[in-house]
Design brief:
Helix content is 28%, strand content 20%. It is an alpha/beta fold. Bound molecules: succinic acid. Succinic acid (SIN) binds next to loops.
Length: 335
């Protein structure tokens, strides 16, 4: 092993990339989060030729069960490894189901002095044509590259490099499940060749001064559809929710019944943010205050799940923001 190779730390959290099945021919029946990170690395001997690898098993979960305390632990391990002067990059393995939320959290909270690259897999490690080994190799290549420096948190899957803020899982099972629906991927990796087509969007403002996760606000997602009731919103407000993201129709349109319930919620100091359930595109900020949406901030191009992460971090850092829709809108526009 050459000391000139980049030193890369792999932080493993579980997911299908660490999944296994007794039936290699099945890509749908398996147990996620069973294979330790040391074994995942051993399965890719080519890693030893491109990096000096260190591993840490931060968690071993199916990411559907993601909790804020894992984000806190992950952030602490990222901070630990990225402040030493001898680590060149960090790779985080994660389940695909909520990867976009953890990516958004890290994007908003980590200063990234070195590349931080998330990766995952759609097929378990024991399946035929498992995608995890190549994704891991590519993620390590990107984490060790000088081109990845200064680009924030990245997500590498299926030979594509995505910005953490933009990427979303768009398919239940396909190997090319991940996309950046608004701007496209930042670049690609093919063997040793790494190419960035564009830089990530500007305007990242790290959210600081976070309280412990137990004190984070309650922020939930509701959706607009044909004849919605107001039961869910009223119940959430009665339960003390501090923020609501609406997965609105089209360009942020909200059914009048739901809009009335949300207006009442806003009147009681709940932050309301409009995102879109379409999966791509920007939610317009109305030029004039319209009664049905005027007091609700636009999530801009963030999908409801990413908008929720931003809203909960903003409210955790600054609770009075819930009563200031204009400032909230300015912060969504800046992130
Ligand atoms: C998970 O998200 O942990 C399971 C599904 C996957 O990784 O594809």
């Amino acid at each position: 092993m050459s000391a000139s190779l980049p030193r890369i730390v792999i932080l493993a959290t579980g997911g299908t990339i660490a999944g296994s099945s007794g039936n290699p021919a099945s890509s749908a029946r398996y147990q996620a989060a069973t294979v330790p990170v040391s074994q995942l690395v051993d399965a890719v001997p080519a890693l030893a030729g491109i990096a000096r690898i260190e591993t840490e098993q931060v968690a071993q979960i199916d990411s559907k069960d993601l909790r804020f305390d894992l984000w806190e632990r992950l952030a602490a391990r990222v901070a630990h490894w990225s402040t030493g002067d001898d680590v060149d990059g960090i790779v985080i393995t994660h389940g695909t189901d909520t990867l976009e939320e953890t990516a958004m959290f890290l994007h908003l909270t980590q200063p990234c002095p070195i590349p931080i690259v998330m990766t995952a897999a759609m097929r378990p490690s024991t399946s035929l044509s498992a995608d995890g080994p190549l994704n891991l190799l590519d993620a390590v290549r990107v984490a060790g590259s000088t081109q990845a420096r200064g680009k924030g948190v990245l997500v590498v899957l299926n030979q594509q490099i995505h910005a953490a803020r933009d990427v979303a899982k768009m398919h239940t099972s396909a190997v090319d499940a991940f996309a950046s629906p608004v701007g496209g991927p930042l670049g690609f990796v093919q063997d040793a060749y790494i190419r960035f087509h564009r830089a990530p969007a500007e305007g990242r403002v790290p959210v600081q001064r976070l309280p412990v996760p137990a004190n984070w606000p309650e922020v939930e997602i509701v959706s607009s559809y044909a004849q919605p009731g107001r039961i869910a919103v009223d119940a959430l407000v009665a339960a003390g929710v501090q923020g609501l993201v609406v997965a609105a129709a089209g360009n942020g349109s909200i059914h009048e019944t739901l809009a009335a319930a949300l207006a009442d919620a806003a009147g009681q100091g709940v932050a309301v943010v409009r995102s879109s359930r379409t999966g791509a595109g920007h939610v317009a900020i109305p030029e004039k205050v319209r009664p049905e949406v005027g007091m609700f901030a636009s999530a801009m191009d963030l999908n409801p799940y990413k908008a929720r992460v931003l809203l909960l971090l903003l409210l955790a850092a600054d609770p009075p923001l819930a009563r200031d829709p204009q400032r909230l809108q300015a912060l969504f526009a800046a992130h």
